[in-house]
Design brief:
about 110 residues; mainly alpha; about 70% helix
C-alpha cells in the first residue's frame, strides 16, 4: 500500500472517531490532517524537526534533542534491521490473531 493511500485511510478513520477523541487531542488531529503529517514523515529533515519539537515539551529535552539527526545518520542500518524484524513481527501478529479467532469461548 502506498503511503499516501495509507495516510488518507488513517485520516478518514480519525474523522469518523471524532466523537470519542479526547477534546485535548482534537486540535492536533485537525492539524495533522490539514498538514498531512503522516506523508511528511518520509522526509528525513521533517522527522528531525518533529523530534526536536517533541524534545522541547519534555522535562529533560537534552535527552532527545538531536535525535532526528541521529535517526537520519543511522537510517540505512535501521531500515535493514526493520526489514529483518518486520516479517517475524507480522507472522507473530497473524498467529496471535488466528489463535484469538479460533479460541473457544472468546465470542469470535
Amino acid at each position: 500500500m502506498e503511503l499516501e493511500t495509507f495516510s488518507q485511510q488513517i485520516y478518514a478513520m480519525l474523522q469518523t472517531q471524532d466523537a470519542v477523541l479526547p477534546v485535548t487531542m482534537k486540535p492536533s488531529v485537525t492539524k495533522m490532517i490539514q498538514e498531512d503529517w503522516l506523508t511528511s514523515y518520509r522526509i528525513p529533515g521533517y522527522i528531525s524537526l518533529v523530534i526536536d519539537r517533541i524534545a522541547k515539551r519534555m522535562s529533560r529535552p537534552e535527552l532527545l534533542l538531536g535525535g532526528g539527526t541521529e535517526l537520519v545518520r543511522c537510517r540505512h542500518q535501521l531500515a535493514e534491521d526493520f526489514h529483518g524484524f518486520f516479517p517475524e513481527a507480522s507472522a507473530f501478529a497473524e498467529r496471535h490473531r488466528q489463535s484469538q479467532t479460533l479460541a473457544p469461548g472468546t465470542g469470535n
